[in-house]
Every structure is written in C-alpha cells, then in structure tokens.
Amino acid sequence: MTNSIVPSGLLQRAGPKGRVRACRVSPLVPKASIILPMASERTAGEQASESLQRPESISEPIPAAEEGGGTEYRYCPLCGTRLVRRELFGRIRPQCPACGFIYFQDPKVAVIALITRGKQVLLIRRGVDPGRGKWALPGGFMDAGEMPQEALRREVQEEVGLAVEIQELLGIYPMAGPGARSRGIVLAYRAVPTQAVGMTLVCDDDADEARWFTPAEVPGELAFESTRTLLARWKAEIDGASP
C-alpha cells in the first residue's frame, strides 16, 4: 500500500492491484508551501504511477437516464457531488471531481437451482422483471457473507417454501438483463428436495406460480438463456436414461 499527499488535501491510497482510494485529510502543511517537483526531477516509476492516476478524458456529468443502468450512482456517496465519467485504469468509470471517489462496479453474483424429482423439474413463473410472466429456475442474488449453496437454499425456501439439498455445480453463466443489477454471473447447481412426499409449494418473493414439469410439459416462454440451456441439458439426460 502506498500513500501520497496531493495539494487538494486528499490522501490517495494505491493498493497492490493499482486501485486508488482517496479520502479527505487535513493538509500537513499550508497549501501555499507545498512545492511539487518538476517532471524531470521525478523518477520514471513516479511518473508512470502519476499517469495511471490522472484521468485521460472527462465527459459530462452522468445523466439521470442512466441511473440504475450504467452505474448505480449519479452522486458521490461520500460528499454528494455529481459524478463525472473519467478514463481510469483502462476503462471509463464514474468519479467524483471534488473528493476523488471512484466507483468500481463489482459484478453481481446470482445462484439458480435445477431441482428435479424423478423425471420432473421445478420451474417458477416470475412475478417481477426481468422476465415477468415467464418461467425460470428458482434462485436469486447472493447476500454479503453467504456461500453460494447457503444463498441458494435460502432463495428456494423464500420463493417456493421448499427445503433442498444442493449437489454439484452445473455451470457458470453470464447474467442477462438491463441495468447495473444485471451485470454479473449466475452459478447453477443441481438440487433435490430433502423430503420425498408431502411437498407443498408456497410461492412468495419473486415467484407467482411454481410447478413440476416433465420434459414434454416444459413451457416455451422461458425468462433466461441459462434456464433454456440447463433444461436442454436435463432433457438430454432424461432421454439418455430412458430404456
């Protein structure tokens, strides 16, 4: 971790991955007495580090139409100044022109379950967008501090009231849909109900209906490509196991 004091009174912290964090501090000396060395007096390493931190381009403030789309922030969460787009670390990122805060958009992580019972699969009809009114595999977003299997058990319980045993990871898929909440990955697992009989599906959360389907009954209106891919794989397994 390296620190540097700049005339604006910001403490810039550069981590091992090159990401810069800035926080406001009281200047160690009056601004008028800060003297920066000329470019010729700085080492090549210092000049290279400075070039990484200096924005190459600045555009207009992020428009209101992009709220919830290209970024989750239009205003700085630290000082309230409107963010602008700047080229930082090889990509256009929202940054605060006042305090230097940079918004790094971390990917969302969701989990879904291919829950089977004999030659049937469980699907939910989504009650919310994206994919409202279409069918999908049960699942949802992970919460901070959760492991994927833990999150998936919670989501299935919330959506259909079913306790399941999580089995192997089936695949990792790109998240599809508009907005910043849809920029991430989907972890798909195989799962089975923990009880063989007496299962009552109680829809809640994002689901307005849940049903068991045979391969021939699977509806054509599917919400996501990951659901379509996994169901095709499941149907192929059923066909291969048929005598």
From TrEMBL:
Keywords, A to Z?
Hydrolase
Q: This protein is called what? A: NUDIX hydrolase
Recorded GO molecular functions are: hydrolase activity
The record's family statement is: Belongs to the Nudix hydrolase family.
Annotated source species: Litorilinea aerophila
Biased composition annotated in UniProt, kind: Polar residues: 46-56
Is Hydrolase included in the keywords of this UniProt record? yes
Task: List the Pfam families.
Answer: NUDIX
Q: Nudix hydrolase domain: from which residue to which, for each copy?
A: 106-237
Its taxonomic path starts at: Bacteria, Bacillati, Chloroflexota, Caldilineae, Caldilineales
Hydrolase is among the record's keywords: yes
Region Disordered: start-end pairs: 45-66
Among InterPro entries, the record links this protein to: Nudix_hydrolase, NUDIX_hydrolase-like_dom_sf, NUDIX_hydrolase_CS, NUDIX_hydrolase_dom
